[in-house]
Amino acid sequence: MTATRRVPKKSAGAFAVDAGATFAVVTPEPRQVADLIAFVRGDPSRAFAQSYTRDLNGKLRVSTGDHLYDTAGDPLLTITGDDCGVHDIMFGPCTGWMLTDRPTGEGRQDEPGGCRENLAAALEAVGVDRTVPDTMNLFQKSTVTDQTYFDVRESPAEAGDAVGFRAEKPAVVAVSACSAKGVASGTTLTPIDLRVPDGTAVRVASVHDGVGVDERGDANGNP
Ligand SMILES: [Zn+2]
After folding, report:
1. How far is the CA of 204 from the centre of ligand 1 (A)?
2. Residue 95 C-alpha to ligand 1 middle, in angstroms?
């Protein structure tokens, strides 16, 4: 049995899963990017390693059947299903300077932070005191041109698209609903849903005001 927990727009949620457990990240609205990180539970020095995931898969896109590797080069998560099929493993999470200094098409976002800060806050809520590593940018589409330059394109995610994962080790996972307005997610930011094993508590956090994260940091429906 699974339960659905909502990560409000511009926030992040963190949860623990057992080895062998499955979960999914779902975008309830079209075109919403989500950033995902994970750590080995009990040994958070071993984190999702974006660079080794590129290296060990030998490609810039991962999808069903591919592993997300940790810093020791061991599979940490496996993608078990993928409605969207397009995700980036090239970028870090959006963060304060990025959302302050970069134009978005409708001016500049003046934000206290972005996915990096929200993921850090969600990790803190589940007791993981670690620097946020580079993320898997779910539902984000970039294209490398001329084997040199990359362009971020509009997210192709459709409403209800889900990406399923299986934990290969006991893990702590954190997922943010991206805070960056722009080419990828557009100018209307939306939530992300997490389908987690029944009984899984998801702690949510945000550095943004007015996004629906209460003081307790409980995702709606937590046990
Ligand atoms: Zn972001």
Report:
1. 15
2. 7
Tell whether 119 is covered by a domain.
Answer: yes
Instruction: Kindly report which listed range (80-89, 122-131, 166-175, 210-219) carries the lowest average pLDDT score.
Output: 210-219
- Give residues whose Cβ lies within 5 Å of ion ligand 1: 94, 114-115, 178, 180
As a whole number of angstroms, the distance between CA 106 and CA 149 comes to: 24
Question: Phi and psi (nearest 5°) for 53?
Answer: -65, -40
pLDDT digits (tens, 9 = 90+) for 133-191: 999 999 999 998 888 888 899 999 999 999 999 999 999 999 999 999 988 999 999 99
Q: How far apart are CA 4 and CA 133, in angstroms?
A: 25
The boundaries of the domain holding residue 48 are 2-205
Measure 124 CA to ligand 1 centroid, in angstroms: 18
Number of domains in the chain: 1
pTM of the full structure:
0.91
Please indicate, yes or no, if residue 190 is contained in any of the structural domains.
Answer: yes
- 213 inside domain: no
Write out pLDDT tens, residues 39-79.
999 999 999 999 999 999 999 999 999 999 999 999 999 99
User: Which sign does the torsion angle of CA 135, 2, 205, 193 carry?
Assistant: positive
